[in-house]
Amino acid sequence: MPGASIPSSFEIRIRISHLLKTPLPAGESPQFMWQHMIYLYIFCNDNIFVHLCFQTILDVKVIIASLSHANEIVSLLGRKTQKGRMMARSTKPKTKFQADQDELKLRAAWLYYIEGLTQEQVAQNLDISRIKAFRLLAATRDEGIVQISLNSHAEPLIRLQRALEKHLGLFEAIVVPSSDQSEASISAVIGHATGRYLSDRLQDGLTVGVGWGATLQACMSHLKWREINDLSVISLLGGLTHSMADNPSAVAWRLAEFYKTELFQITAPVFVPHVALAKELWEIQELKALKSKVSDIDLAVLSVADVSKQASIFRRGLLTTQDAESLQAAGAVGDVLCQFVDEAGEIVDHPINKRAMAINPTQLRKVPKVIISAGGIRKAKIIRASIMTTRAQVLITDEATAQELLSLESLV
């Protein structure tokens, strides 16, 4: 390589075009050119030309990062680049076996980290065993060929999520940024995260239980469509005779309608006037059958509310301010499925709970995955209590509420 000159960006572009046997349109972005050049470096044998380009590729790591997953900065070829610069000076060439192994590692890393293939797909693509694909990818990390660091903006949230998981004994916590503590803003951002989370976890044959509230209503606007077979949706509480979009039955209906699947509803008001009437209604065969279907639920998603005038249940007139005061006197910190619980997550002994046409939230303790989707600092106590009531494994909340939850007593 003595005497070779460093090519200009124009020469790089022409060479890529020649190797690809496809002219690069004049309007293509620089990112397109760099992506193809890196691709050529990994998949073509003409590495000498690309080594000459290293002086030009000063921002190769930044370019790679722009092509990587949102929460990762994948500095692929970081070490390989250094090796490439050294190759011009090295007098001891690698053996063919070593060169082949290095190329295989790079191919595996590209497919896995840049193109987003699974390990099994990488193995199929390279015609190797899954175990070998796993070992190759592990080697790219160990040898520094691939270096991964978290996006600095996301790091505080991830630390908060891990702290919440340990503090509350959760399988998973998702924390979203919260600059505005208004009810509408919190419902919107948490609803967005919940919609994406729920969409990714729905599978063929699942039975899903659904609660209600503004947050879950917002969640329904962010579902991702895909065909799901044999999905069943169960509304976990009764409805309202007059309502806007956050009617409990409307939330469950929107989920069922979106995925074109069957829906089971408690066809009764969420609160009835008398305890005796609630008992009679639960004796109706159809409602009794629906209640028994709770044992079939695979995943449940619900929100919670505190005992304050801002809560939908009081703001909408389902219960009065006198009811709120009475519930607070009984030790209630909020409701889960319109049934009020204390700080320990126990359902309080109060007539209002006995008038609720809703599934008892403690029945959800046997559900494999229960998701609590709620936020707002004033809801911290009821969120903590609801985790104990339902034994929820997943919490989706906002940053300020997460900090408040960490200030409360640990559940572990």
TrEMBL record:
It comes from the Bacteria. Gene3D superfamilies: 3.40.50.1360, Winged helix-like DNA-binding domain superfamily/Winged helix DNA-binding domain (1.10.10.10). Pfam families: Sugar-bind. Belongs to the SorC transcriptional regulatory family. The keyword Metal-binding does not apply. Residues 154-407 form the Sugar-binding domain. This is Transcriptional regulator. PANTHER family: TRANSCRIPTIONAL REGULATOR LSRR, TRANSCRIPTIONAL REGULATOR-RELATED. GO terms for molecular function: carbohydrate binding; DNA binding. Keywords: DNA-binding, Transcription, Transcription regulation. Coiled coil: none annotated. The keyword DNA-binding applies.
